[in-house]
Design goal:
Blueprint (H helix, E strand, L loop, with lengths): L5 H6 L5 H12 L4 E5 L2 E6 L2 E8 L4 E5 L12 E2 L10 E5 L7 H16 L16 H8 L2 H9 L2 H12 L4 H16 L12
Antiparallel strand pairs: 1-2, 2-3, 3-4, 4-6, 5-6
Length: 197
């Protein structure tokens, strides 16, 4: 069962209890709003996450939600998932003696100031795809079909494009295009009939 308070969270990690209590004390000094998000202690300013901490099997961490902007003069921050994570950085520890309280305060203070200054990595979400060359060529000859296709959401465009490009034979591509043309003109997605409301 997920923790609902910081104390409940600390109780879940007896092997890290002293270390997490130390971080909790440091974070409590900041004046940030304390809460539990994603099952771990999180500290926010005006509803925006700034820092948090978490425990794992062989280490514990401080999370900086906009850590990308931290100067990291001590070179302590890592990006745990470089491909997926743009802004988040973590500082890993393996024991209580690893926690330099003064340095942690410097990093937290900078993270708070960055939040005040509005330094936020903009996350772009969305679907990207390359339109099937066959589909692109076919719709280029029909203005109504082309405008209807590009009026669809990116995910629907991608579904239609994949549906055409997955066909091996040109005859199959043509029959699939004939099938989907009225659906595109109607503004429907390829899989809409399978979706429940």
């Amino acid at each position: 069962m997920p923790a609902k308070t910081v104390n409940e969270y600390l109780d879940k990690f007896p092997i890290w209890r002293s270390e997490l209590e130390c971080l909790h004390k440091l974070f409590s000094e900041t004046g940030l709003d304390e809460g539990i998000k994603w099952g771990a202690p999180t500290y926010a300013l005006n509803g925006k996450n700034v820092v948090g901490f978490a425990a794992f099997k062989s280490y514990f961490v401080i999370w900086f939600f906009q850590g990308f902007y931290l100067k990291d003069a001590a070179k302590v921050l890592v990006n745990a998932q470089a491909v997926k994570t743009k802004a988040l950085r973590q500082w890993r520890f393996e024991s209580l003696k690893d926690i330099n309280e003064d340095l942690v305060r410097v990093y937290i203070k900078e993270a708070i100031q960055n939040q005040v200054d509005g330094k936020v990595v903009k996350i772009t979400r969305g679907v990207t795809y390359n339109i099937s060359p066959f589909l692109e060529e076919c719709i280029s000859f029909d203005h109504c079909l082309k405008s209807s296709f590009y009026a669809l959401s990116k995910s629907k465009q991608k579904d239609y494009s994949n549906y055409i490009s997955e066909a091996k034979r040109e005859a199959t591509k043509i029959s699939r295009l004939e099938k989907i043309t009225p659906m595109i003109l109607a503004g429907s997605g390829l899989h809409d009939k399978y979706k429940t409301s």
